[in-house]
Amino acid sequence: MILSGNLLLRLILVGFFGLFLVQSWAQKGWEAGAWLGTAYYFGDLNTSYNLSDPRPAGGIIARYNFNNRICFKMGGGYAVVSGDDAKSTNPFEKARNLSFRSEIIDVSGQFEINFLPYVHGSRSEFFTPYMFTGFSAFSYNPTAELDGTRYNLRELGTEGQFKGDEYYGVSGSFVYGGGFKIDVSKTWSLNLEVGARAAFTDYIDDVSTVYPGKKELLRTRGEVAAALSDRSIMIPGVDSSQLGKKGAQRGNSSNKDNMVFIQIGIVRYFGNLACPKP
What we know:
Blueprint lengths: L6 H15 L7 E14 L12 E11 L4 E15 L6 H6 L2 E16 L12 E13 L3 E4 L2 E4 L17 E14 L4 E12 L14 H8 L1 H7 L28 E12 L9
Antiparallel strand pairs: 1-2, 1-10, 2-3, 3-4, 4-5, 5-8, 6-7, 8-9, 9-10
């Protein structure tokens, strides 16, 4: 999984930002705009980082420039993510045959560093690659379809959760990534960005631990919950005899889920423009 437990990389990012924070260049001001793009999910139902199923994403951003190197960016976004064992190349996962789709509403705050001096209105410093890191909070609601009807998986307790003890529908993530910004006029700029979110939950896909007992799940949650908990199928040459049995592996709880947003945004600058050099 992306950055799962990679404390060293996080410390390097924090240290890199700290070095730049001691610098002080002029040009302060706000920017605001919107972006559109695609979202990807990586987790128990996409362990091979398959990129064949992009989903729509979009949002708004506001950025405060402390100087021409350091910014603080706030954002809000909406995305759809999904995963499907049928698209896996792993025989066990194909036999497990689980799938999900979830709507994501994300709010984040990130510190951003420009690799080059970036000054709005400048004829020479009007573009730069950049990197960022921060944190986000997001809501999610994994769903799956059965006989033409889509069900909210969280409330069904598909891994044996008791009523009232289901996982939360809100979590957080460590955000990191990079991009490229370039002016298209004195006040407007384009931002191309790839941002990853290493989530603090393993339930974006509703899959994390082991199968519950079928009889108990039928009794406490009903037939729909039991059917969506175990959707395993027979695959030639694959021993799937343990799938669906109580206590058998359903997911891998040691690795949290991840998301990646690829986006292009248009941003307007509201601060003071650079004075032309004589």
